[in-house]
Amino acid sequence: MTDRGAMREHLRLAIGACLVVAASAATVGVAAGGTPIRTRQVSLVLDYSVAQACDVHPNYPGDRAPGNDIGWRIAPGDTVAWLYNADATWSVVADDKYRDSTAHPAWGFVRRDCIGTSLGGEAFPTSLSRYPSGRVVPLRELEGRSAVTSDHYRPVTFRPSAGRVTGARTVLSMGTLRDTANRFVIGTVFPGWHVRVTDEHSSGWTKVYVPHLKRWGWVEDTHFALPGAGISRAREGSPRPPEGTPETSLSALTSENGGAAESVDN
């Protein structure tokens, strides 16, 4: 296997696996006793080369969050996986160098012109097709690849609506902030950060407000400290203002989210 092929395989196994979903419940064949032989699958995280040396940021640079410059760089020869374009300038990618790291983010924001062309070979848009090499990333904004929509893309909820705050937690381990439970990455939370938790939960994820980023999103429950572990809780059912939130935005804390999050990825 070539070096490029090995890098692509590692990325798909370690990072892309979380976003490779069944494209259909149909199977190619069924063995005796009804055991499926093979399930159709498509790849939603496709590999790209790097066009030029650039900085990568764990959170959206447009929000000017403090501490967003962590010395993270990509350069020609690296491999990244494109997830979606946040706007005309910034794209969300996974850096293959940090696929196994628990101390450094794998997902981050990089300028779109830093991304090269597709390496190709993944099953997309169907299990029987292979994505070609040499293609630039899609131009569409706030849409990522999907296995459950007719055009193979679905919207990213880049700024989730507010929820009803019921308490507070401390982040114990680095984790991703998602637009809904276990779907598109919209940022990163770090150990020691405080978040305001809501009464919205789905498949092991909780909707939160992150004061450090001044934005809402979903964080996996495994990254939280337990109630009472070094941080006070808000009285059950009583909204409380996030740190640094201006008075004019406090009404957002009491608004309800309109629908339950889907439990699938993309």
Provide an overview of this structure.
The strands form six sheets. A five-stranded antiparallel β-sheet has the order 8-7-6-3-9, with helices on one face. Strands 12-15-16-17 form a four-stranded antiparallel β-sheet, with no helix packed on it. The chain has one helix and 17 strands. It has two domains: 3-155, no CATH class; 165-254, Roll (SH3 type barrels), CATH 2.30.30. The protein is mainly beta and 266 residues long. The radius of gyration is 20 Å and the shape is globular. Strand 13 (175-178) and strand 14 form a beta hairpin. The model is unreliable at 13-40 and 230-264 (pLDDT under 50).
Summary tags:
266 residues; SH3 type barrels; 2 domains; five-stranded antiparallel β-sheet; four-stranded antiparallel β-sheet
Give the CA-based shape. Answer: globular
Number of strands: 17
* Tally of DSSP helical segments: 1
Q: Can you give the helix content as a percent range?
A: under 10%
H/E element string?
HEEEEEEEEEEEEEEEEE
Largest β-sheet summary: 5 strands, antiparallel
Q: Let me know the average pLDDT.
A: 78
Work out the count of structural domains: 2
- Assembly type of the chains comes to single chain
Distance between the first and last residues' Cα: 30 Å
Write down the Rg: 20 Å
How large a portion of the residues is in β-strands, by DSSP E? 25-35%
SSE class: mainly beta
Strand order in space, largest sheet: 8-7-6-3-9
Identify low-pLDDT runs: 13-40, 230-264
